[in-house]
Amino acid sequence: MHYRRLGASDLRISEVSLGSWLTYGVDVDARRAKACIDKAFACGVNFIDTANVYGRGAAESFLGEALKDRPRDSYVLATKLHGDMGGGDRGLSRAQVFKQIDASLKRLRTDYVDLYQCHRYDPDTPLEETMQALSEIVAAGKARYIGFSEWPAEKIAAAFAIPGVARFVSSQPQYSLLWRDPEKEVIPQCKRNGVSQIVWSPLAQGVLTGKYAAERPPPSDSRALSASGGPFIERWLRGGVLRAVDGLKPLAAQAGVSLAQFALAWVLREENVASAIIGASRPEQIEENAAASGLAIDPALFAAAEAIATPRRR
User: Fold this and answer.
1) Which pLDDT tens digit goes with each residue over 226-236?
2) Are 42 and 280 in contact (CB under 8 A)?
3) pLDDT of residue 45
4) Rounded CA gap, 127 and 19, in Å?
5) Pairing state of beta strands 3-5 and 12-14?
6) Contact 4, 13 (CB under 8 A)
7) Catalytic site includes residue 54
8) Most Cβ neighbours (<10 Å): which of 225, 228, 243, 277?
9) Rounded to whole angstroms, how far apart are CA atoms 16 and 46?
10) What are the angstrom distances between the C-alpha of 179 and each of 36, 102, 184, 247?
11) What is the topology classification, in CATH, of domain 3-204+269-294?
């Protein structure tokens, strides 16, 4: 496993990291989920990402139990706030920042998180209020660093223009061969401000593993047929997208790697990407994906992949 510095922080995180959206505490049973955690650490993964809204606390509670016997300084832990937690608890107001960090820390069984992220932008709360509250939890030692997910470039710039507050070190956008929108504005804005990308869905909900095909139904045990995952993957199961993914398979074979490894290596070719977050329901998936770290792929193969994939997003 290779490691990269996270933005302007002193954190070094694994190029492949483990997420918990739609998996741990929700769709994957605890025994298998714990096996995935153990395999991730065995493969050199040191960055674990979650959010309060994943299972409305269930993912954090699972991770709190799964990680409780590991030395706290042996892994980098990130969570998020913004999503609807019920009872009117949502957003990035000062009250929510303080309430949600304490609730997350309790579920995670830790005194601090290494990275606390704004899951989305909150147009109903003044940005200055959010940034001041985040700065106070950093000063209190409850979070070492702060980040954001899916913020537009102009809001990123506005946050950095506020004086005397903690500075973001990470951005968590969707980014893959099939979804390159961050390249337009977000990545350039982040490069100017010492912010790294921690990307989600680098395998497009598993479509870039090659397990789905246009001419046959999804595998019976796949996320596409699950109640929680199905709505999110539906847009990638269109015939044009799946045929494009089929066109990527010979390129991965030429590189001598699996399609998943090829797709992850493509994401990691971008120097502003610190880590690619994977989801896994089986330990062997983690082992395969972790092997994408440090791969040297011919740039010509990546260029060919971009030519195939980019026009086929829809």
Assistant:
1) 555 557 788 87
2) no
3) 98
4) 27
5) antiparallel
6) yes
7) yes
8) 277
9) 9
10) 27, 34, 11, 17
11) TIM Barrel (3.20.20)
Query: 49 near 78, Cβ under 8 Å?
Result: yes
Query: pLDDT-derived band of residue 134, with 50, 70 and 90 as boundaries?
Result: very high
Distance CA 122, CA 226 (A): 30
Contact criterion met (CB below 8 Å) for 17 and 49? yes
Q: Which residue type is seen at 85?
A: M
Token digits for 186? 């977000």
Whole-model pTM: value is 0.92
- Cross-strand bridge partners of residue 179: 176
| First-to-last C-alpha distance (Å) of the chain | 34
Catalytic residue from among 3, 24, 54, 212: 54
Q: How much is the pLDDT for 168? A: 98
24 token code pair: 């741990």
43-57 pLDDT per residue, tens: 999 999 999 999 999
- Domain segments of the chain as ranges: 3-204+269-294
CA dist list (Å): 107 to 18, 70, 86, 92: 18, 16, 16, 19
